[in-house]
Amino acid sequence: MASNTVSMPSPVCLIENGSDSQLHVNPLALQILDGIRQPVVAVSVVGMYRTGKSYLMNKLAGQREGFALGSTIQSHTKGIWMWCVPHPTKPDLTLVLLDTEGLGDVEKGDQKNDCWIFALAILLSSTLIYNSKGTIDNNALENLQYVTELTDLIKVKSPGKAKPGQEEEDEEEDTQYVRFFPIFVWAVRDFTLELKIDGRSVSEDQYLEHALSLKKGSNKKVSDYNLPRQCIRNFFPSRRCFVFGTPASPDDMIRLETLQESQLSSSFLATTKHFCDHVFNQSPIKTVQGGHQVTGRMLGILVSTYVETISSGSVPCLENAVVTMAQIENQAAVQEGLSLYQNGMKGALVFPVSMDEISHQHQHWETLALEAFMKRSFKDNDAQHMKVLGEKIAEHYTTLLMENEDISEKVCCALLKDLSTPMAKKLKDGFFAKPGGYELYCVDRDAIVAQYRAKPNKGVKAEEVLDQFLKEKDVESNSVLQADQKLSENEKQIAEEQERAFRMEQEKKVEEEKRRLVERMHEDEERSHQESIRQLNLKMELEVARAQEEAETAMKSKLREQELLMEKGFQERAQAMQEEIQQLQVSEQEKKKQLAQTMGKTIVEGFKAIANFKLLRKQKLAEKAEKKRLEQSGRAAEGGAYDSLPKQTNSKGKGVQSSGSPPKNNEANSEKIPKPKQGKTNPTEQTGSGVMSGKGKEDSLRPNAGKGASLNPATEKAVKQQQQEEEGSAV
């Protein structure tokens, strides 16, 4: 199993920028991300080449070396490099640092490639650091021209998702970018000026806001001036600024990586610490639409999806990427939940067990499986993947129930065979073939039943197997009864009535055992459905809370921006901002409505799942009944399930038939067993020269009744009827 977090000794290339300017994902980096199951805080840095981006990233990693710094005019970072380290202040998170290739590299000369690097840095991070040198002037903002092309480089919604009669305009989509774009931090390096505006000291953030101020007017010059500023304000309403003085003398700057901290400027070190503390404490967990937290594995899926989309010539779409990631993660969540259930049940049960025990374990592990699924899954529209998990768990549970029944049956058969061995020997020796033999026979048989019932851990088939055993003893019992010369005809009739009452009582126990089994299964089905609804409710509440938090963050940012515009006299822009805020509110209401619809569909699907479980159980029972019928047919050709008893003899050496076979038609036996008197009702019937009860006669037709017996139509009908009763009970 993969570990929760990964601590890399050094960075690796995440996205390679080939000589053909094509982007490729490094499989090794994806493998590293796949091993991170913790949520991640992803921090990326972008900026013009040779501006010292890598130094800041090394400081965030807590290392002096790592990302290549270089000391020449050449750019050392190519593509996007990744360094995953434990979060320094939040142990349950992993910090993923992304150092990007410098923008505007004269050796590359490919502006489109720079645009994609910039776009990927935004798409993959929860905090975006823009690194520049000098001051935030018009030239610095023009170098940040890529921000003006973001609506062409990144799409929020999939094309064709606009409602009928509406066009999906960029302005409508602008309201969504703020939900998903990272926090923006501007790091100004080698700043040598005083932080003053109009002679008044200002903070670093106020300095940034002043640089982003808009001009009034509508001519081209004003529009060009406002465009990058307006884009930053629209896309990154949450923004901070840090200004760094020169860390060392020009001569020492070329070996900045090797300098001791004592050799660096104290103000530079103070700003660096302040910057790192801010990133550690304020950078949020990377999330996607719906506020779902991104793990390292999920970040790897996003990387692959975005790069593949760019390589195909298409524009990365946030919605499509999330759908792809959700599909992969939800499938993995189903497998994780199912494996948890299967392994848990396997470790907790040693068959045979009672229905109460297997039901208890099923409830416990199903709950844990659903919790594991809910924790990992997201955007499971109409709860389709949860339904799949429920069906797979139900199928496995049904298999376990069948296995438990089979093992219980085998254990009980073996136990009865072992307990009846001494009695079988007595029959073989003719012990019961004497006056008073029937009473002795009943004592031994009742002792077997008592010993059998006293034995624990027989499982769910205990009474049914015992009933089968006693049925197979009916012929044997009746033969001993009729051969007992001590008993009068009236006493034999009384004994037969007692035998029937005994058998009826046993049959009641069997039916009660089956009834309890069916009732518990119904309870399991209903409880499973209720647990699914409970878990889904919790999941939806969490998703609603996350979506609401996401919307509130976007709303606060827009309201803050609106307030600033109104203060500066931009009434028209403020009015446009109000429309965006209203769109956010409408979007939030639609999302809540969609979640409510999902809950309704899930309840319906839950009842369907219960019906499917019953159908599956019915099919399994039918298959088991057919298998058992075939096995019984095979045993009928060889002898009954308990037909290990040879022919017995009475005290005179005459034949008394053993268990599973009707009395032989021989003269000696006919002489010893009195015939019923004419004109009187007698519950016994004479078959050949042997006498047995009506029930005994019926049992003699069963496939296990004697050697060479075949499955006659009456028996086949009885078997089918039993199958129907079991299937009807399951439903």
Describe this structure in words.
The protein has helices at residues 27-34, 53-60, 111-124, 138-143, 150-153, 170-180, 204-211, 220-235, 250-253, 266-282, 296-311, 318-348, 355-376, 384-429, 437-454, 462-472, 474-483, 489-567, 571-638, 667-672, 694-700, 713-730, and strands at residues 12-17, 23-25, 40-47, 80-86, 94-100, 127-133, 183-189, 196-197, 200-201, 239-243, 287-288, 292-293, 648-649, 655-656, 684-687, 690-693. It is elongated, with a radius of gyration of 41 Å. Residues 70-76, 162-172 and 639-719 have low confidence and may be disordered. Strands 2-1-4-5-3-6-7-10 form an eight-stranded mixed β-sheet, with helices on both faces. It has a two-stranded antiparallel sheet with strand order 8-9. A two-stranded antiparallel sheet has the order 11-12. The longest helix is centred in the last third of the chain and has 79 residues, at 489-567. The protein has 731 residues and is α/β, with parallel strands linked by helices.
In short:
The protein has helices spanning about 25-35, 55-60, 110-125, 140-145, 150-155, 170-180, 205-210, 220-235, 250-255, 265-280, 295-310, 320-350, 355-375, 385-430, 435-455, 460-470, 475-485, 490-565, 570-640, 665-670, 695-700, 715-730; strands spanning about 10-15, 25, 40-45, 80-85, 95-100, 125-135, 185-190, 195, 200, 240-245, 285-290, 290-295, 650, 655, 685, 690-695. It is of the alpha/beta class and about 725 residues long. About 40% of the residues are buried.
